[in-house]
């Protein structure tokens, strides 16, 4: 019954609630020490993604941490750079991959990425194995955590033996409830930012691929369910937003996970509804470790340490490299 209680996380003294713990780390944090080496990886369907490598030393080592970012994020988000630095300080190479269209240039095809798209993560892992990595650790934040959990649980027999463990943070394991929760009045600041980015992506995609997309009424779409029903679902072969959420939500796949996996969701996360705290699934699993600290916000977990390290980074490295996870 790997449900971890109580959590060891204690927030920085200057962060007093879930909104501050969400907003300030995202807007104020800088991690300048990380230096990426970019690789463009061609995908089987003719598209591409951008991989950003951060090596722990002058030459690759045998261990690699793969980092999956959140919705409309990239490898340059501070939480990704912080995790890459943490891997490197532990002597582990890091790979931060950018989803289709998130690496600074538009992808080629009339599609984007979505929160259940594990095929691209599988290609990234295969690329790492081709390059000689013998032990691979998966980390993910928010949407990237959902992709990671789904990848591990939907077809565990296809997960390569090189993938050893995973640690994910602030994960909306119930996408339908999460999409409704972010539309609440108190979360409007987050919704506006996400929707502005998604609308601009659609405008850019329509300009790039003339005739593929109808932008009529785009500015009238004010929430995830409407946007996903109009664009995300049909772009990726789903009949509706609800069908997409049902397929992509990692919560339905947790029972299939057979690698030690840590899920840390803060109880004061403003973006996660109660259904995103899967106590029953963790209690029934030999491999899923659920930690629910009272604080942390959404992809926050700042501690105010002199070295600038966040709890999510310390916790991930400790879990991933410990002989017996817990």
Automatic annotation (TrEMBL):
Keywords annotated in UniProt: Hydrolase
Family: Belongs to the AB hydrolase superfamily. AB hydrolase 4 family.
Domain AB hydrolase-1 residue range list: 66-303
Family matches, as SUPFAM superfamilies: alpha/beta-Hydrolases
Gene3D superfamilies in the record: alpha/beta hydrolase
Naturally occurring in which organism (per UniProt): Hymenobacter polaris
Name of this chain's protein: Alpha/beta fold hydrolase
Active site: 142 (charge relay system), 269 (charge relay system), 298 (charge relay system)
A GO molecular function held by the record: monoacylglycerol lipase activity
Top-level division of the source organism's lineage: Bacteria
